[in-house]
Amino acid sequence: MRRSSLSLLLAALTALVLSDAVAQYPSRSVRLFVGFPPGGGPDIVARLLASKLSDALGQPVVVENRVGSTGTIAGEAAAKSPPDGHTLLVGHDGLFVINPHLYKQMPIDPLKDLAPVASLVSNGFFLAINPSVPAKDFTEFIEYARRADPPLQYGSGGNGSQHHLTMERLKARAGFEAVHVPYKGGAPATTATVAGEISAVMSGTSTAGQIRAGRLRAIAYTGPRRSRVLPDVPAIAEFYPDFVMVQWYGLFAPAGTPDAVIARLRTETNKILVLPDVKEKLSNAGGVEPWITAPEEFAAQVRSEYATYGKLVKEVGAKVD
């Protein structure tokens, strides 16, 4: 009886302390990890969010770039931090749905060690070709690619990157061959396409300027609908309704972070994403759009993409040691 009473007392005290900590959250500055260098898409989103969250929470939110292993280093740093809401992560989808299939070993299990707080932004890719390619639209490109001998070459941001896997899925869906040429990032792959070193690339919406200038020809978009950045470019889903490939960023916390803390962070984040100046800055940063979801919808999206990319990685045979 004494042990039982003591256990109940300890549980009550723990709950009281936890409740007080949640009520006082945040009690100090909040660290916001991002796994990519300053100036890139995830960093821009993180810094925009940090500025607004600082005002909403009444404590500084400080961005820390932990670069390496396509986001895994930042993810590990966040996952191994105390689950009290004072350490957060702007994580990209690759960390959760691609890296676990791509790397033989990972220091964390992102799906178990990190808790989703809120979806942030999403956008698709433009299928962009060098203007010398004799195809004026998506249908002509598919026919050209099917007949090309030798097969055309396309670039990506690296082996196992979303650019790579998205094109591989299109190859399988449309029935054509193409040779993959990996580069160290999406920007070099885009530059190589502009220079005519390769014929095509799945490029981010940030390349809209080069497309408008005629240095690239965009013939399709991988999102569920046409992009507001280039609304004249059709979505691949208009030709293949089951073909939708997007990239997204979300806000995550260490697993075990109190539900009340996560709920507050989600509420504040969703308020931030609908602010007109935030939407404008996101659009100017490369055409990314706010992506607000219910918690269960976000979790379901992650699980679905985990299965999709796992199948793609296995089919393609992509691995990173």
Structure notes:
With 321 residues, this protein is of the alpha/beta class. It contains 13 helices and ten strands. Strand 1 (30-34), helix 2 (41-57) and strand 2 (61-65) form a beta-alpha-beta unit. The longest helix is centred in the first third of the chain and has 22 residues, at 2-23. The termini are far apart. The model is unreliable at 14-18 (pLDDT under 50).
Jot down its keywords.
single chain; 321 residues; alpha/beta; ten-stranded mixed beta sheet; 10 strands; 45% helix; 20% strand; globular
Let me know the number of strands. 10
Multimerization status: single chain
N→C terminal distance: 55 Å
As a whole number of angstroms, the C-alpha radius of gyration is 22 Å
Structural class: alpha/beta
Q: How do you describe this structure in short?
A:
It is built from 13 helices and ten strands. It has 321 residues and is of the alpha/beta class.
Question: Can you lay out the helices and strands and say which pair or pack?
Answer:
Layout: H1 2-23, E1 30-34, H2 41-57, E2 61-65, H3 72-79, E3 87-92, H4 93-97, H5 99-102, H6 110-113, E4 114-129, H7 138-147, E5 152-156, H8 162-174, E6 178-182, H9 186-195, E7 200-204, H10 208-212, E8 217-221, E9 246-254, H11 259-273, H12 276-284, E10 289-290, H13 295-316
Parallel strand pairs: 1-2, 1-3, 5-6, 5-7
Antiparallel strand pairs: 3-9, 4-7, 4-8, 4-9, 4-10
Helix pairs in contact: 2-11
